[in-house]
Amino acid sequence: MRKQIVSLLVLSCLMAGTTPALGRLQSDMQTLAKNLAVIEKSNDATELKGALQNMRSAALTAREEIPFSLDGKKADSPEMKNYQQGYDILISQIDQVAELVDKGSIEEAKAAVDKLKNTRNSWHMKYRS
Hints:
CATH architecture: Up-down Bundle
Shape: elongated
CATH topology: Four Helix Bundle (Hemerythrin (Met), subunit A)
CATH superfamily: Cytochrome c/b562
Binding site for heme b: 29, 124
GO biological process, one term: electron transport chain
Radius of gyration: 18 Å
CATH class: Mainly Alpha
Function: Electron-transport protein of unknown function.
GO molecular function, one term: heme binding
Largest sheet: none
Mean pLDDT: 86
Family: Belongs to the cytochrome b562 family.
Number of strands: 0
């Protein structure tokens, strides 16, 4: 009985340590998706800028999280560096779209959103568990 209780406590501690991080990553993914939808639907520069800033913040946070597929990998492992590179690409693309919005090139910015979706889809296939 004592061994079962100890095992249960150890398991609970392990799960409690990883669940918040995984929850943050999921929340960041939802933020990215929600704001991408805003960008696709809106033509208002202020709304687009806000959505792009939200996406950038979520991408920066998610970049530091560890997905299930890389659980147990060290922060400096080649796999983690590659995972972070995907976010670097996404953040760069978000910045490019934001520059277009700042210049008033709303239609160009909306056309560039396809690159964001392609980046998301290709990196999702690689690291989503």
